[in-house]
Amino acid sequence: MGSSPAFLAAIGMLVLWAVVGPHFHFSDTWQIIINTATTIITFLMVFLIQNTQNRDARALHLKLDEIIRALRSAHNEMIDVERLSDVELERLAKRYERLRQATANQRSFRQSEEAPGRPEDGSEEMQGRLEEGGEESRGTEEQVHGKKAS
Q: Which residue of 54, 56, 72, 94 has the lowest C-beta tally within 10 Å?
């Protein structure tokens, strides 16, 4: 429906409707025909668009689920997170906000303790930790939740 031929067909129908206008003396019936047709088409397009968006979202979630599953350090609990209730999603969002804040605080603390002559962004230390297996993110989660990450 969203292709060039469909658009040209819609333009053709409008031109045909306008051309037959004089034949019907631009009557109320002539106007009702186009109004009814556009209303019905709009109504049906809502369902078509919603179906397309649902399929696209489902495919995107499956791709993300595969990425999460494939990454060893990723949290598998994030697979199918879209199926959680609003309350559970809010709880999860708050959890990740606490993780983000703890990570920011930890980086700020490290930057304040940086030795002179070293980069202030902590990039060398961060790179070393990432190469060692991402211990920084695990430590942060332990601090926030008091438990070991999976």
A: 72
Say yes or no: 60 and 88 in one domain.
Answer: no
Please write the tens of the pLDDT for every residue from 90-116.
898 898 889 889 888 888 888 777 655
Instruction: Supply φ then ψ for residue 113, to 5 degrees.
Output: -100, 5
Q: In total, how many domains does the chain have? A: 2
pTM for this one?
0.46
Residue whose entry in the numeric block shows the structure tokens 């962004």: 121
**pLDDT tier for residue 46 given thresholds of 50, 70 and 90:** very high
Domain that holds residue 128: 84-145
90 and 141: one domain?
yes
